[in-house]
Design a protein that fits this description.
mainly alpha
Length: 336
């Protein structure tokens, strides 16, 4: 029998409240405190199973976040001293570097796939989605000061995420590089249209959460075991396939819309090269999304004696069904 961990409710509560506190903060000190509370709330969630791999991942996460917090605090304290933009510019760079480390953006991404590959699927969902809210929000505050710093970071993140995912067969690592690639798209639109970034982030978060939740139900960690998995129904496999293709921006799924909007925004701001590289990287990411999608559909639906099929739970029907409607659009109510 699995041991209950009631203390996790406390850490999930502080994780949620720290993000809300950061969004509503009126000064940098409260913002920094919210970030630290957010980090310290997530570390116990990372290591909740007490396995050696999760403990190692929690230590790596802590070191990366502590480094980012150091740069962030240095940038915030220095910006408050100087009044003119020219004096603040180097410290805005330092502040931005701290936020990029916290998000796992290129070239500060090395910790991110290692942590993702050693933690549970629930922790992967939080790390890929919820933990990016505060850094993206702070970056949007300074996007007008250094707009063209973001474009090289966006190009590098999208390219590394696309190329790094091609050689991955371990699903959490593959989803980590997918997250890096999508982060490049979000960063590219921050200086020009923050609202587009919010829309992209929401659609990405929903699609990623659905994909990882179903992978968790499949009890699989690599592409080969995905093919042989028979723990979920064909409707769930179709939902997984459509969610993955939505992440890749395959039309007419919902993930296609924000990418088109970002490309239009970049072209209107005369950033044709950035738009072209992002488009090419999206083609590369779509190749491994198609591989995942085909692998999920090829898996057998006939239950084995040792692995009987799981009956749909209240969580599956009440949570995944509306998410499927929001994400897939043309394929509602797949779980009914």
């Amino acid at each position: 029998m699995q041991h209950q961990k009631p203390y996790l409710f406390l850490f999930f509560s502080t994780l949620l409240s720290s993000t809300i506190m950061a969004i509503s903060s009126s000064n940098f000190i409260l913002l920094w405190i919210s970030l630290e509370l957010n980090m310290m709330s997530f570390i116990p969630i990372l290591s909740s199973s007490k396995s050696n791999l999760e403990t190692e991942a929690a230590i790596k996460y802590f070191l990366a976040q502590a480094t980012g917090s150091g740069f962030l605090l240095l940038g915030i304290s220095s910006i408050s001293i100087f009044n003119n933009l020219m004096s603040q510019f180097p410290f805005i760079l330092i502040l931005s570097m701290g936020l990029l480390i916290k998000m796992g953006a290129v070239p500060f991404h090395f910790w991110f796939p290692h942590v993702m590959s050693n933690i549970s699927w629930l922790s992967c969902i939080i790390l890929s989605t919820w933990q990016k809210i505060i850094p993206i929000m702070i970056l949007s505050y300074y996007s007008s000061s250094i707009p063209y710093l973001f474009l090289p970071i966006a190009i590098l993140s999208a390219s590394v995420g696309a190329l790094g995912g091609l050689k991955q067969s371990h699903l959490p690592s593959l989803m980590a590089y997918s997250s890096i690639a999508h982060l490049g798209w979000m960063i590219s639109s921050i200086p020009f249209n923050s609202f587009t970034t919010i829309i992209y982030f929401i659609i990405y978060s929903i699609s990623t959460a659905i994909s990882m939740l179903i992978m968790n139900l499949m009890k699989t960690l690599n592409l080969k075991s995905m093919i042989s998995s028979n723990l979920i129904s064909m409707k769930m496999k179709l939902l997984l396939s459509m969610s993955i293709l939505s992440l890749g921006g395959m039309p007419p799924l919902l993930g296609f819309i924000p990418k088109i909007i970002i490309l239009k925004t970049l072209l209107q701001s005369s950033n044709q090269l950035c738009a072209l590289i992002l488009l090419l990287s999206s083609v590369l990411t779509l190749s491994y999304y198609l591989n995942m999608s085909i692998s999920s559909l090829m898996s057998s639906s006939i239950p084995s004696p040792s692995n009987p099929p799981q009956s749909p739970s209240f969580f599956n029907t009440s949570i995944l069904t509306p998410l499927a409607i929001l994400t897939l659009g043309l394929f509602p109510l797949l779980l009914i």
